Amino acid sequence: MTSLEAEAAIQARGGIAAAVRTRDQWLASDMGRAAREGPWIALAPGGRKEVGIGLDGQGIPRAETPLPGAAENIRRPLTGVRVLDLTRVIAGPVNQRRLQELLKAADVVVTGYRHGSLDRFGLGADALQAFRPGLAVVTLDSWGAAGPWRRLRGFDSIVQAAAGIAHAYGRQTDDGGWQPGALPVQALDHATGYGAAAAAITLLTSRRRTGRGGAGRLSLARTAEELCALPAVRTEPRALPEPAYRNMPSTFGGLRYVPPPLAAAGQPLDYSGPPPPYGSSGLAWT
Known about the structure:
Blueprint: H1 3-12, H2 23-28, H3 30-35, E1 41-45, E2 51-53, E3 83-86, H4 96-103, E4 108-111, H5 125-131, E5 136-141, H6 156-163, H7 165-168, E6 171-172, E7 178-179, H8 187-210, E8 214-219, H9 220-228, E9 246-248, E10 255-257, E11 263-264, E12 267-268
Parallel strand pairs: 3-4, 4-5, 5-8
Antiparallel strand pairs: 1-2, 1-8, 6-7, 9-10, 11-12
Helix pairs in contact: 6-9, 8-9
């Protein structure tokens, strides 16, 4: 089989696969053209017409009043906001009635499933907002809402392979072949995650003015296009500075970690505590 034949056969059976393409091959494909359509973050606040936010943050409004909890703790301005996070890599089954109970008190829902795959459960963005009109719903997937791959599964490394990133970071082998490479971090995951957070905060900001929620959409493939459109780095590679490690005790032992690269009011943010033991968190708001 060629790589494209294998890709088609695996996808036809519900598997996750993408042939390693050059950047030009991806841009010339129907999938690549679809990935370039629309903004990086597509937002529809308060039921209004969809607007866009770019990777540079243009289009994000500033809050006229603080979000809940900001006055009490400026270093944690989102204190009190309840986020139902359905984006984890390893997911478990949830009883749907319990999920609906959580939705009644949620401020934000973030989902990370194939485009349209939650609709049959009544958990699509429109259905969620109808169930709770003030809800901010942010969805992210691999391939976006348009194009022939919109219903397919995927993850960061697969999108890197399809979009030409793995080829660009590859190297020549001794036998004259080409070995694909990868970015040193899951850059599409990280950037899309920060975009999802920005979308949620923007929708919460809008809700304080209008009393209504809204929806935001992102995809790893669209993030890949934004990153590939950035100017090339012309400086020589050099060693990165050592991260500003911090330490805290945990039930797993001493934890050494890198804090979030964010600040509020000029002060660096930090995690509120260590990760809890597995299985210790009940399916309820705390």
